[in-house]
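Supplementary Methods S3. Input chains for the assembly prediction are listed below.
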Amino acid sequence: MSELEFKKKEKELLPHLVDATFLIADPTPTRRVLQRLLSACKVKPSNIKTADTDAEAIELINLLRPNVVFADHELPLKGGIELAQHHDRAVSSRHLKVFFLVSDTDSAALANTIADENIDALLIRPLSLTGLKESVFAVLARKIHPSEYMSTLQEGLALLDMGNVEAARERFAAARRLDPGPSLACFHEGMIHLSERNLAAAEECFQAGLRSTPTHYRCLLGMFDIGMAKRDYALAYDYARRIAEHHTVPLKRLPEFIAVSIQNHQFDDVLDFYKLAQSLGAFGTTIAMPLGAGLVVAGLSFLRRGDHEKAVTAFKNAEVATRGNAEILKRAYFGLLEAGLTKEAQAMSGRFDREILDSVEAKLAEFRFVQKTSDALKVLHHGIILVRQGVKDPYLFETVIRLSVEARRKASSIQQLIDVASRAFPDKAAWFAALAPGLDSEPPPEDDDDFGLDSETSV
Amino acid sequence: MPPQSPSFKWVRDEDLTVTVYDLRVVNSATHTKASSQTGAQVTELAENGLALRVPRSLCSLGHVLSIELTFRRIKPGEKEKARAAPRKPGEKPKAPGALIAKLVTTGKVTETKLLDRSKDIEVFVRFYQYDEEAWSAFCSDHSKRQLRADAIVRKRQA
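Predicted structure tokens for the full assembly:
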């Protein structure tokens, strides 16, 4: 294959790579292309390590703290993005620290996601040696010879790494004076204020960054965080939308975006968030569980407004996202039962053990469906069967007592119901009694625990 | 509650659009075939050839391969739509998405390399009798994908 030629500026960077250490965590044939690039850069072979899995790569990062990592996005088992987080923690920003992710996918959503993880570049397969060299050297040039502005920011970040917050703040403030568009410096200074809960000062910094660059991603995200910190969810939602409008939704902030959409009753948003996570195969626990829970909440809201199709879609998506997590999906199951979507509920029921299928919640959900769709006598019949099965719920008791009064059942039967309800909820005894005013009480016969149902209400 | 603008979208199709390639290789002597559907891959684009990952049984050193390589941009849902589109019995589904580059060429296997823990090999194919301009345009189209990704990352981190 072809020889590689270096431009003058690239040649000037080569001496900086002599003592640098490299890790190639990519088991695919791409590894060979990367090795050829490093070989052409005269990197010593002993300074290049390779790994086939994330476990091997993590071990090598801990041991050698490599300056430059190339990682496969699909690296077994956890993938390159998690490895980048590990590298970020393991190697100080005082040293040359570069991370490249290699991927077959070139979607804007993935490029934005990796940028949020401080990954320096996304290298797209199939690679060409010349194209690879240009992408790698463009990043190295920025890292090795940063502008005065960027170098001041890097100093600030290194000071933050060491815990010297005041010196870091001073560096960020200095950087603001070095560039006509210092949004990134504003952001970093704002983040210090935010971590100190000085929300007014943080907001001032983020807004200054946005005055300079109105769509500056990190400052918009800073304002989103201000909204969250103030519990001003309308403000957070507004900035979340601005981020989505000018960039893409940041995957790592998806749980917060879901929460903000739900706080603002924008349940349809959650279906879009699912689409994003699905396209990136991002169903790790940190995203899958909040996403699944959000989809269930959204689905229940769709059920309430009668949009059954959308509700079923949301629940099915929740099943995929959570890989059938029963704890999250049981609310969806109860919702389907309550809406009378028995077929859909049955399709989901295979996820659950008997404890959930026979639970009080499931029985009450069915009862609420009967209540919505049947005449009073059928509701009463269903309710009394539940009471006889030992289901204890104030709403159930209230309903059967009221319906018993309306149906003019025997006073003794009603009294028996009130007694059972009062024993279950002693603090509500007076309230249950008040549901049947002027009840001409007659003592119930001994051992009569069928509440007179069969004799009075054959359904 | 903030108002919802009807044109607003949390996730735009273009953000999820991906480029995929379809590779078909035929050994001119043995007529053995491989394709991306069966796991064949392009592993490197070079100035005057390609590196491919193919099954060991496809070819040996010195063999001539016919290569067809197509790059397409596919929006979310287009794959499923293409698969579900009505077609005559025996007819293959139409390729989804928009064609962005296509290369049809032949080349000679100049090097083979065994891949660890795999039934595949990596072969280096040098083109001959090929349209240099078309190949250069093809590579340039491909490099635009890299430039686009670089621009997104830089904008987000600026």
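The beta strands of chain B are 18-27, 33-35, 41-45, 49-55, 64-74, 98-114, 120-127. The two ends of chain B are 31 Å apart (CA to CA).
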